[in-house]
Write a structure and sequence with these properties.
mainly alpha; 2 strands
Length: 115
């Protein structure tokens, strides 16, 4: 799993990590039953604290996407629905628009202009 974080993103790091993992699952990089790398390995690869990754993993567990098994690590419990993926991508798009000075209403206007 190749995850990247945008250090200029104003969202908390655990939300960025959760979003990246959610997208990876939704895009098929991981299927139900697949094991994720240990939180420490993910944290090392991202250059962040392991507790931040663990918080993201707990959030995804609470959403029903991941399951924790003692001695077996973290595995994918399910695949997010299309709506969940769209919501995540819309959040990402809104954050990106804010970086360029666009409001939510501006973004809605842009979407309405699309064919």
């Amino acid at each position: 799993m190749l995850l990247t974080l945008d250090l200029n993103d104003p969202r908390p790091l655990h939300e960025q990590v959760a979003g990246a993992i959610r997208r990876a699952i939704g895009e098929g990089s991981y299927q139900a039953g697949d094991r994720l790398p240990p939180a420490k390995d993910l944290a090392d690869a991202l250059g962040i604290n392991a507790n931040t990754v663990l918080r993201a993993l707990r959030d995804l567990r609470d959403e029903g996407l991941l399951e924790f098994r003692r001695g077996r690590g973290v595995s994918v419990a399910g695949v997010p629905t299309g709506r969940a993926l769209i919501v995540q991508r819309a959040r990402d798009l809104l954050e990106e628009a804010k970086k360029y000075g666009y409001s939510r209403d501006d973004l809605i206007d842009v979407l309405k202009e699309l064919p």
